[in-house]
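Page 37, top half.
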Amino acid sequence: MQQDSEENATEVKSVTKTLAIIETLQGLDGARVTEVANELTWPKSTVYNHMETLEQCGYLVKEGDIYNLSLRFMDLGEYVKNRDEVYSLVEPRIEALAERTGERVQFVGEEHGKCVFIRIAMGDNAVSTGSRLGRRRKMLHATASGKSLLAFMPESESEAIIESIDLPKLTPNTITERDELYEHLEEIRDRGCAFNYEEHIEGLRAVAAPVKRQDGSVVGSISVSGPAHRMSGDYFTDELPSTILGVCNEIELDIIYQ
């Protein structure tokens, strides 16, 4: 029994190392074995063995001595992106919303306590923030989408996430105290939508609202973001939230009658 436990532990560590190498290669935008080993502070031989295995299995490609992720990950990404039929219902709605507002529109989900960008649409005047499909961020407390997700998921789940993460101060407006965040989430529940008053990036504001299934569970959150000088006055506090809530309601009806 002890030998089986030791073998299982070794296998789990091996998987963890493989995943760390994949993420490191993504972060480095391709790299040599030595560069990955230095980044992870692991023996070069260990990294080499893992990377050679990944290449043989088709998950890495090698040009000269540079390894990079293969197109196999595109296939996996497309599968995940389209796994939930709701995601395909969201796409035309946020494209239309981006065209209508001229801003950046995002559909964001939550997974393992992080925001995940599932769909992005860019209006004519959209500001790029460096987000991309599939990107994961911890900043649930500092974004309109993140706060919207926290507010409308089951309170036990929301509390577990909040208690397990740091609340770093990203701008002078970021909420960094848990008690204040809990109070803020209550306000969001009452209002139906969340605001980001330059809490994540100075000069950038956003509004977000949740998309729910018929049973009340949250599928994700739709946000519209733009420069503070455009996101102001009644447009920001009244007109835009009403528009977003309307789009969320349309998607919820699509979900029911698809």
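Page 37, bottom half:
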Amino acid sequence: MTIDFDLEQIRKRFDCTVYFETGLWDPTSEVSSKKALRSGFDKVYCIELREKWIDLGKQVFKDEIESGRYKLISDDSSNMKKHLDDHVKNNKTMFFLDAHVDNNNIHNYKKLCPLIDELDAIKSLPRNDNIILIDDLRIIKMPFPWGEDSYGNINFLQEIVNKILEINPQYKFTTLNGHVEDDVLLAYLE
């Protein structure tokens, strides 16, 4: 949700043309989709489960949706793989993974924290050089982030790093500022 870094600078540094995020939040606020649309991405995707945010997003991003530059997907991000179209498959994409159930207003979810499923979807792509940003490290570092226990008692952050290294063992890692300092994991290739 909160990006406290220069998205356009990262887009340029890693030459990404597509932005794909999981979790929209309130589109009337300064959400990452707005920042992505102000950056130089050719196409911006967002998958969101909560219908309230989808309905608001259709209003807020009406022009971008009509022009085809913004695709707002109403679905659980555990199903992300089926939404990775040819544009995502064929172009270097920056993924911003920020989907999680953090309130009682969401009931139709598959997992409270679908990060592993999202990374499996990215792993299925023919490209293995995409940029991966994962928000909320302060919570992911804790046992059972957002109450997610379907993966068992694992070190969630280490499991995420391992999944990313399965995509490409050459990935390097650093952190960026998000809601708090060093709250966003950046996986990249030089």
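Margin note: Residues 7-188 form a domain with the Rossmann fold fold (CATH 3.40.50.150).
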